[in-house]
Design brief:
With 118 residues, the chain is an all-alpha fold. It has helices at residues 5-9, 12-38, 48-67, 72-90, 97-117. It has one domain (8-40, 47-117). The protein starts with a helix and ends with a helix.
C-alpha cells in the first residue's frame, strides 16, 4: 500500500509542534548557557565529570535541536542520545521538567519522522 501526500500531511501538526517547542527550547538553553558563561563562575567546573555532563547537556542537546531542522531523524537521535548520556554520567534518573522538557522536541521529531516515513 502506498502512502499518499494527504495521508502524510495528517502528521504536519506534529512537525509544527516539534518546531515551535524546538525554538523555545533553543532560546531557553541559550539563555542558560550565556548566563553560565558570563556569570561569576565563568567556565569553572568542579571536576571532569561536570565538564563531560556539560558537553552533553546543554551543548549536545543544542546541537541535536539544531540538526532537527535539517534532518529530523539525525537531530532527534543526537538530542535523545545526549540526554541519555547526560543522565547516565550524572547518575540522575529522576524526571526534571526543565532538562527533559528542553530535549522533548527531539522525541517529537523522531516520532514525526517515524510516522511520516511509513
Amino acid at each position: 500500500m502506498t502512502t499518499t501526500s494527504s495521508q502524510k500531511d495528517k502528521y504536519r501538526w506534529l512537525l509544527w509542534l516539534a518546531r515551535i517547542w524546538n525554538v523555545l527550547s533553543i532560546a531557553f538553553l541559550l539563555f542558560m548557557l550565556i548566563g553560565h558563561l558570563i556569570g561569576d563562575d565563568g567556565f569553572a567546573f568542579a571536576n571532569q565529570k561536570e565538564w563531560l555532563m556539560f558537553l552533553f547537556f546543554p551543548l549536545g542537546v543544542l546541537l541535536g535541536l539544531a540538526l532537527c531542522w535539517w534532518k529530523p531523524w539525525l537531530g532527534g537521535f543526537v538530542t535523545i542520545g545526549s540526554l541519555i548520556a547526560f543522565r547516565l554520567i550524572g547518575q540522575e534518573i529522576d524526571f526534571n521538567f526543565w532538562i527533559d522538557g528542553s530535549a522533548a522536541p527531539g522525541f517529537l521529531f523522531l516520532l514525526y519522522w517515524a510516522l511520516h516515513k511509513k
